[in-house]
Amino acid sequence: MTETKTRSPEHLLAAGAIAGLRQDLFQNVLDYRPLGPLGADGPVIRRLPEPLRKGVVWFPHAVVGLVVLIALAQGVFDANTYSPFGIATVITAFLPAGTLLMTLVRPVFAFWASIVLTPLVAVVGSGGWPWAPTMFVCHLGVLIVVAARTRPRTAVWTWLITLATGSFLGNIGGHPSSSSTTFAMAFVSGLALLIVTLAQARRDAKREVTVQRTATAVERDRRTLLEERTTIARELHDVVAHHMSVVAIQAEAAPYRVENPPPELEQAFVTIRENAVAALTELRRVLGVVRSEDYEAPDAPQPTLAQLDRLLDNVRETGLETEKTVTGAVRELPQGVELSAYRIVQEALSNSLRHAPGASARVEVGYVLGGLGLRIVNGPARGLVKPSPGAGHGLTGMRERVAMLNGEMTAAATDDGGYEVTVFLPVRTERDHTAEEEAA
Fold first, then answer.
1. What b/e readout covers 206-215, taking b as 16+ CB neighbours within 10 angstroms?
2. pLDDT-derived band of residue 304, with 50, 70 and 90 as boundaries?
């Protein structure tokens, strides 16, 4: 029987650090990773004019290119002035500048190339040890670009490796400690990497917050949509259940109203009643799942446009001056249309109370041949009461009701600062039913 050895936290921490080092700096060293342009939707770039915006997105590339040119000029000048080697121009000028330029396409490989090139430039060139001025600038640039293009953990590893390289070369170079540039490199690069890492962490945190807010907004809209659909399903259940119950009762009573009905007629009414009861049972079983455990069916009938005046009176008591205009021949519409129209007007007036306190509202109801038109308009907010913030849930519910009836809806601000909701709910006429039956 073997005993499982429990590793100490220190051992696990060291193993994780070594695994991170291997993953960040030893795996896929030659990966081709070109640096793309900045996002055009940034807080600064999006405020710039369009022609200037197209060039500013390449700002990091321009900065790297400018530093490369400065380092190249300095390296050529130092090599031709102080160094006795003819090839020194290439080693002390072009190769360090090349490693910095390489960070735009292969950042990890550029770091290792800069580390390998450090002792060579130190031997061939002149100036500080182990980093001559040109190599100092180029390696510092490599560290900054690599840190900006990778994770914060990689920045720590590159700084430690740079510090170890400088300490090792300083001990074997035979140069006095007073001329060593290791401390300067450690301090300047550490400060620069700290700033880059903090900026990168802030950027990642901001991106994460944005993603979370987006996901929360999407989830909130989805939940609101489901809640509104649940409410509509409940109301439709009450409406349809009422009509199906009437069908079943009339089908059961119909044979008794006819003297000596033929058996075929009795059987037809029995079949109608059985189908109505079965449909009612199935409807309650399917739509019953949307009812919460504490939901109670309303004792009063579902509201219709006939109760619209009562709704407007209640709204006026809260301080919203409203007026109603009805055009066309008033007629009874299907109960689902009446209920949806009432709820739409109710929600629109509620939005006016929340978002435009002190304003007045106008409700227009138009009975036309093909359906019902609604228009609810409110003026701008007036007075000292501030509008309440909203998430657009009321509009979501209205659109759901309109879409359920294959209607059309528009909602937009008016020129005077108010808001307008326009809805059309189609209603099929008897002529439409007759045409469909004839076509069938």
1. eeeeeeeeee
2. confident
User: If you ran DSSP here, which 8-state letter would residue 199 be given?
Assistant: H
385 backbone φψ class: left, alpha, beta (φ>0; ψ -120 to 50):
beta
Q: Helices (H), strands (E): how many in the chain?
A: 14, 5
Token pair in block for residue 326: 């009805």
Output the CA angle 214-220-226, nearest 5 degrees: 140
Element (H, E) at 11: helix 9-25
Distance CA 333, CA 428 (A): 10
Residue type, 34: P
Q: Report whether 113 contacts 162 (CB < 8 A).
A: no
Per-position DSSP letters for 316-363, written without gaps between them: HHTT-EEEEEEES------HHHHHHHHHHHHHHHHHHHHHSTT-EEEE
Using the 8-state DSSP alphabet, how is residue 28 labeled?
A: S
The set of long-range contacts for 167-176, using a CB threshold of 8 Å and a minimum separation of 24, is: 169/118, 169/119, 169/122, 169/129, 169/130, 170/129, 170/130, 173/122, 173/129, 173/130, 175/129
Grouping H, G, I as helix, E, B as strand and the rest as coil, residue 101 is: helix
**Residue in the structure block whose two tokens are 């160094």:** 83
pLDDT at position 425: 94
What average pLDDT does the segment 317-335 reach? Answer: 87
